[in-house]
Amino acid sequence: MKPSHVVALGGAGAVGFALLLMLLTHGAGFPLLAPSGSVGISERDLMVRTVYLMLIVVIPVIILAIFIAWHYREGNTKAAYTPNWEHSKMEEFIWWSIPFEIVLVLSAVTWSGTHELDPMKALVSTQPPLTVQVVALPWKWLFIYPEQGVASVNELALPVNRPVEFRITADAPMNSFWIPALGGQMYAMTGMTTMLHLMAPTAGNFTGRSANYSGAEFAQMSFTARAMDQSDFDAWVAQAKQAEALSSGTYSSLRVPSDAGPVRYYGSVDMTFADILDLYMPMRMDMTMPMGSSMMHHP
Amino acid sequence: MFGILTSAAFIHGPIETGGQLVVVLGGVSVLLLLTFTKRWKWLFREWLMSLDAKKIGIMYLVLAGLMLVRGGIDALMMRGQQAIAVGAGSGYLSPDHFAQVFSAHGVIMIFFVAMTFMFGLINCILPLQIGARDVAFPLMNSISFWLTATGAILLNLSLVVGEFAATGWLAYPPLSELAYSPGVGVDYYIWALQIAGIGTLLAAVNFIVTIVKERAPGMTLMRMPIFVWTVLASMLLVLFAFPILTGTLAMLSLDRAIGMHFFTTTLGGNAMMYVNLIWAWGHPEVYILILPAFGIFSELVPVFSQKRLFGYTSMVVATMVITILSFGVWVHHFFTMGAGANVNAFFGIATMAIAIPTGVKVFNWLFTMFRGRIRYTTPMLWFMGFLFTFILGGMTGVLMSVPPVDFQLHNSLFLVAHFHNMVIGGVLFGYFAGLAYWFPKIFGFGLHEALGKLAFWLWIVGFAVAFIPLYILGLMGMTRRLDFVDAASGYHPLLVVALVGACIIALAVSVQFFHFLVSLRERKHRKDSSGDYWGGRTLEWSTSSPAPLYNFAHIPHVHGRDAFWRMKEKGESGREGPYEDIMLPKNSAIGLFIAGFAFLFGFGMVWHMWWMLPVSLLGIFVTILVRSFATETEYVVPAAVVARTEAHHHPV
Questions:
Q1: What are the residues facing A153 on neighbouring strands?
Q2: How far apart are CA B67 and CA B190, in angstroms?
Q3: How far off is chain B from A9, nearest CA to CA, in Å?
Q4: Residue B10's pLDDT is what?
Q5: In chain A, what is the greatest distance between 2 CA atoms, to the nearest angstrom?
Q6: Does B573 contact A at CB distance below 8 Å?
Q7: Is B314–A191 a contact, with Cβ atoms under 8 angstroms apart?
Q8: How far is the C-alpha of B311 from the C-alpha of B24, rounded, in Å?
Q9: B234 within 8 A of B292, measured Cβ to Cβ
Q10: Portion 243-272 of B in contact with A at CB < 8 A
C-alpha cells in the first residue's frame, strides 16, 4: 500500500468514526461542556480558555510535524538533506522560549483561576448561603440541613439562585462528592470536613454521584440534586418534617453497608454532623480552617 | 501451620474458576512440555541461572509479554462488563470481582508490563551502548529479575488461592484497611509490590553504577547516547521514589497485620498521608517509565532520518529538568482533597512547567527529521504514532493541571483516557519502537516488516476507537470504576464503541505475537549477518547480532558522539585480532534461591503463616552467606574461542 493510500484510508476512517460518535452522542447530556451551575460555567470557561491557549502552539506544531514527515520522506530526493546539521543556538533558544512563554501565560491564568474558583470561597450573591452538611455513607449520601432541622438520603434539594455551602465528611471509605452540572467535586473523608460552594441559577434535576471508588456497590452511589424555587423548597422542608427523626439508632442502621435503597427523609436531626465527625475522635481535622489555627480538636 | 489459609480459598464462583483453571492448566502444560522435551537442564543452565544481561533482558521481555496478555484480558473483561451492564445487578461480573479485575489490570500493566518491558530493553541494550561487557553487578541483576518475577507470580497466584485487592491499583486507605478489606487481596497486592519493588530498586542501583563506572574509555558523559542519559535519569528516579513506595506499603501492612494506625480513620491515623506518599512515588513513576521511551525515540529518529540528532545538549538538559521537576508535582493527583488555592495553584503551575522541556524534546525530534531522509520502517511508524497521540495526551494533561478544571475532570473517564493516552501512546509505543528497532540486535534476525506495520495500524485505530469515547464519556460526567451504568445516562452506546476498540487492540497484540512467530520461522533468511541492521550510529551496532557472550571482542575506544558512525566513517570495525582472554561471570542459582525464599516470605505474610517468615529470612541470609565464600565466580573465555566466535559471525 502506498503512503497516500494509507493517508486517504485513514482520513476516511477518521471521518466515519467521528460521524458515528456524533450520532451516538446526539441528544446526550454534556454537563461539563454545558453546565447549569454558576461554578460549573466558570470552570467550563476556564477549560475552554486553556484549550485555546494551548492550540496557539499545538496547531502549528501539528502542521509542522505533518509537513516535515511528508516532505523529508526518503523518496523525495528533491528535498534538502543536511546529514551533519545538529545544532543551532538560535533555533534551540526559540523552542525553549515558545513553550516557556505559553506556560507563563497559562500559569497566570491558573493562579488567578485557582484563587477565583477556590471551593472554600463563598459565592457572591445577594442571598445568604444555605448550609448543607454532606455525609458519604456506604453506599448512599446523607444530606443534613442544620438550619431547617431536616435531613434526606440520596435527594438533595436546593433553592434556586441561592449559594450553597456544602460541608462534607464521610463515615465510609474515601468518596468524592460531585454534581457535574453544577460544578467540580470535593473528597469526602472520615473525621475531616471539606468544603464546597455551588449555586444553581435555574430549576432542574441534576445527577450527582460519588467519583471516588469506595467499595463494591460504589456504582449505586448516585443521587438527584433538585434545584427548585424557594416556595418549592419550603414545601420540600415541610414535607420532610413529617418524617421520622434521624436518631443515633436510625443512623446506626443507615451506616451499615448496603445498596442505595429508596430516598429517605428525616424530620429532625438528633445525630448531628458534629456527632458523626466525633465517631472518629479523638483527632479530627477541619480542612476548612486556615492552617495552624486549631486544626486539631481534642475533646 | 497454614495460618488463615483454608480450603475455602480455593473455591470461587464460575468466572473466577475460569481464571483459576487457565493459570493452573497453563502452568501444568508448561511443566509437562519441558519434561517431555527434556529441556529442564537446558532451561536452568542457559536461562534461569544465567548472569548474562542479554539473557536476563530477554527473560524480562518474556515476562512482560505474558503479563501484557494477563492485563489485556483484564481490560477486555472490564470493557465487556461496562458494555453490557445497564442497570444495577446486570452484567456478568459481581461488583467485587469487577473491582479485583480493574485493580489487577492497573497493577499488572504498570509494574509487570511497563516496568518489566523497560528493564528488558535496558538489560539487552544499555551495556552494549556504553561499550561494556556486562553490568556492574551481574549476580544482583539476576536477583533483581527473579524478585520481579516473584512479585508477578505472587500476584497471579491470587487468581488460584484467595483473591486480589478490590481497591483500585493504588489501594487508598481506609478502603484498603482491615475494616473495609478484611480479605487477603490487599495483602497479595502489598507483598507482590514489595518483593518486585526491591528487585526494581536493586536494578536501579545496578544500572546507575554501570553507567557511571562501566563506560568504554573515551565515552564522557556528554558523549553518551541519549538512551543512556534517559536510563540514568529514570534509575535515579527509581532510587529516590521506590523507597517511598516501600515505606508506604510497609506502613499499610503494619496497619493490617498488627493493628497499627498509620492510615486508619481512628486513633489518629490519617489516610491523606497515604495519598500524599503514594503519589510522591506515583508521579515520578510516570517519568521512570516515559524517560527511557523518550531515549528510545532519540536513538531511532536520527537513524531513520539518516541524520545526526538535533540539539543533543538540549535533550540532556530537558531530560534532567524533567527528572527534577517530576518530584514537585504529586499534589496534582488530588487537587480535590481540600488543599488551599495557593497549594493547588503551585502544584498546577509546577505540572505545566514540565511541558516546557517535553516540548523542547518534540521540537528536537522534529528538527532531527527536518532536512533528513526519513525511512518509514516499523520503529519510525511507532514514533510517528507516539508523536500525534502524545500531543493529544499532553494537551489533556496540561488541561487537568489547572486545578478548577481538574475539579470537574478528576476521577472521570476523561482522566482514564488521559493516562492511557500517555502510558499507551507514550510509554508502550516507545517500548514497541525500541523492541522493533533492537529486535535484530537482541535475537539476530529482523522482523517481518509488513506484519509489524499492520500491528501498528491496528494499535493506532484500536487506541482511537477505545479511548476517544472515554474522553467524551468523561465530558458527559461518567466516573471511572462503575460496574454498571443507568440507561438514562446515555453512556451505554459509547461504552460499546470502547469495547470494539479494546477488541481491535487485542487483535493488534495477536498480530504482534503472530509476527514474532512468522519472523522466527523465517529467521534464516532474515538473519542480521552484518550486525548493523539499520545503519546504526551507536556502539550496540558495532558488534555481531546477537551480540556474543562477551559483547565486544575489544572494548571500543570512543572519540565522540555516535561512536559507531565515526568508526564506520574511518573504516574501522573494532573486531580484528589479535584477541585476548575474556573474563565473564559464571552462572549462578543464587537469584533463584533468594527469589524462592522471598516468595515463601510473601506467601507467609499474606496467609499469616508466621513460622514461614523466620524460615525464609534465614534462608535468604544463609544463601548470601554461602555465596560470600564463593571465590571462583568468573570463568575465562580463551582468546582462541573469541577468535573462533568472531570468525564465525564475520567471515572475511
A1: A142, A264
A2: 18
A3: 11
A4: 87
A5: 85
A6: no
A7: no
A8: 52
A9: yes
A10: 265-268, 270-272
- My answer on whether omega of the bond before A139 falls inside 30° of 0, hence cis, is yes
Q: Provide, as residue numbers in chain A, all residues whose Cβ is less than 8 Å from the Cβ of B475.
A: 30, 32-33
Mean pLDDT throughout A109-129?
Answer: 96
Residue B2: band (very low, low, confident or very high) from pLDDT cuts 50, 70, 90:
confident
pLDDT value of position B3: 87
- Determine which of A213, A223, A278 to mutate to test the interface with B (most B C-beta atoms within 10 Å): A213
Give the C-alpha separation, B289 to B294, whole Å: 9
**CB proximity A123 to B under 8 Å:** no
Domains of chain A (ranges, CATH numbers): 32-70+90-118 (no CATH), 130-282 (2.60.40.420)
Hey, are the CB atoms on B360 and A99 less than 8 Å from each other? Answer: yes
The 3-state DSSP class for residue A165 equals strand
pTM of the model: 0.95
CA–CA dist B344, B586 (Å, integer): 54
Q: Which residues of A fall within a CB distance of 8 Å from B374?
A: 69, 72-74
Asked if B54 contacts B546 with a C-beta cutoff of 8 angstroms, the reply is yes
Which helix (H) or strand (E) segment is A225 a member of?
strand A222-228
Rounded mean pLDDT, B617-630: 96
The answer to whether B527 contacts chain A (CB < 8 Å) is no
Interface A-B, measured as beta-carbon pairs within 8 A, has a size of 293
Task: Give pLDDT, residue A286.
Answer: 58
Task: Supply the pLDDT for residue B90.
Answer: 86
Candidates B6, B177, B25, B20; CA nearest to B97 is B20
Question: Which residues touch A45 (CB under 8 Å, ≥6 apart)?
Answer: none
Query: Alpha-carbon distance B453 to B434, whole Å?
Result: 14
Examine the pLDDT at B207 and tell me if it is beyond 70.
yes
